Amino acid sequence: MSRLLFFQLMFFSILILLILFEYLIYKRWKNRILSIKYKKIFSSIYWFIAISTKIGLLFFFYSRRNFYIEVEGILKPLYYFLLSWNYAFFFAFIVWFLSFIVLYAIYYIFFYIKNRVNSRKKIPDAQENTITRKAFLVSSAGLILDTTPFLATGINFSGMYLGSKDFVSFNKPIKIDNLHPVFQNFKIVHISDLHIGSLINEVYLKPTIEIIKSLKPDIIVVTGDILDNSNLYLPTVGWYFRKLNEIAPVYAILGNHDHIDSPIKLIKTLKLTGTTILVNGSTYINRNKHKINIIGLDYPIKHFESKKTRAQLSEEYFEQVYKNMPYKDNPTIVLNHHPSEFSYLKKKPVQLVLSGHTHGGQIILSENRNSPLSIASNFVKYYVDLYTEEGVHLYVNRGLGHWFPLRINCPPEITLIELY
Q1: Domain that holds residue 45
Q2: Are 56 and 181 found together in one domain?
Q3: In which element (H, E) is residue 91 found?
Q4: Considering 103, 133, 163, which residue would you say is the last residue of a domain?
Q5: Are both 380 and 265 inside the same structural domain?
Q6: Among candidates 155, 150, 152, 108, which has minimal Cα distance to 133?
Q7: How far is Cα 241 from Cα 221, in angstroms, rounded to an integer?
């Protein structure tokens, strides 16, 4: 089965699940409305939104790769609402379903114990607790759970507007062993995960150019996912990277999204802007005959069709590049899209790894990044900010763009790394 067919089947399976859950929530809320008039009003509004968001979801599922659409003006709030409704119902279904399983379990445990006690006391059935299963489940708990899809829609919608607008610049001094004095305070602007497409366009990116320029970097590095889905947005890529190269030399690698459409065209576009694109390659920065090596690893997209894992392929890429790299005694910086590869890179002769991919989790609900409240921490070890293990540093960028425009306490990021 091809990856495209797999994603299409997954998409339509989720779509059917959403429709079934929407119908279930509709029936539960309709039963609570006594007035025939208000039932009709509720039904009309509910199904208009449900059907229109499904049509919109189908359209955007195909258009993001096949049509050039810049979501601006009145389209933006409509697009945000479309995503908010569908994502809210999907995640609310998971919460709703698991919560009712717990409620049923509590009900059966409670009444099993109650019945055992009553039988020992020989209390007649008529005198037992008269709370029925329906009354127990369709209660305040059920009412709250049935509200979660609508509440989540509102939270998503506000989070898309409030969390994906303002760019934040972080300053990260990083100590590099064996760094020659000529590279003291060497400035690297690190950006990642632009996802240039219908939402991330020239209007969105223009303010970032002035921010990056004000940081006065020596070089700019981009750690993958330059495009969202389609090469139709290559003109925007060309415009943006030409602007970046006017500020400082740009070094870039590819991420998983850059392989969705033809990566060859993206690479060609980047080269025409003067960008050094490293696809399992290396280069170096020279100052007074002293050097810093830069290795750029490609995203191992072949792992979908290989018996080898992504990490195994990535390590093979590194070994191949490092074997052919001159000046091995100099400090080495690795650009690698997926931060999980730090598990093996920290054991290699490198000093700094720069990654992206996770977008910082996009939702961070605790200052402690290892807290379960920060969603990504439940799935990946390295997902945001600076890590140092075995003397090697990893910086995971929160991403400049997004593929889903919801950020809570995790703003789009431009990072200034100063070596010392």
Answers
A1: 3-163
A2: no
A3: helix 75-121
A4: 163
A5: yes
A6: 108
A7: 11
Tell me which amino acid residue 260 is.
I
d(CA 269, CA 209): 19
Exposure b/e, 50-77, CB count within 10 A at least 16 = b: beebbebbeebeebbeeeebbbeeeebe
Residues 152 and 172 in one domain: no
Query: What is the CB neighbour count within 10 angstroms for residue 82?
Result: 20
Question: The pTM is what?
Answer: 0.79
Place of tokens 């495209």: 4
Tokens 């809570």 map to which residue? 408
The last residue of a domain, from among 163, 188, 210: 163
Q: List helix spans (H) across 122-219.
A: 133-137, 140-163, 202-215
The per-residue b/e assignment along 376-390, b for 16 or more CB within 10 angstroms, e otherwise, is bbeeeebbbbebeee
pLDDT in tens, the chain (420 residues): 566 677 778 888 989 999 999 999 999 999 889 899 999 999 999 999 999 999 888 877 776 666 677 777 777 788 888 888 998 998 899 999 898 888 778 777 877 776 777 676 665 554 444 455 555 555 677 888 999 999 989 888 877 776 666 899 999 999 998 999 999 999 999 999 999 988 899 989 999 999 999 999 999 999 999 999 889 999 999 999 999 999 999 999 999 999 998 899 999 999 999 999 999 999 999 999 999 999 999 999 887 777 889 999 999 999 999 999 999 999 999 999 999 999 999 999 999 999 999 999 988 888 899 898 888 998 999 999 999 999 999 999 999 998 777 888 899 999 999 999
> Would you state the structure tokens that stand for residue 142, as one six-digit string?
């059920």
The answer to whether the CB of 224 falls within 8 A of the CB of 353 is: no
| Same domain membership, residue 235 and residue 137 | no
User: Which residue in this structure is represented by tokens 């919801």?
Assistant: 406
CATH code, domain carrying 192: 3.60.21.10
Query: Do the bridges between strand 352-355 and strand 332-335 make them parallel or antiparallel, or are there none, so unpaired?
Result: parallel
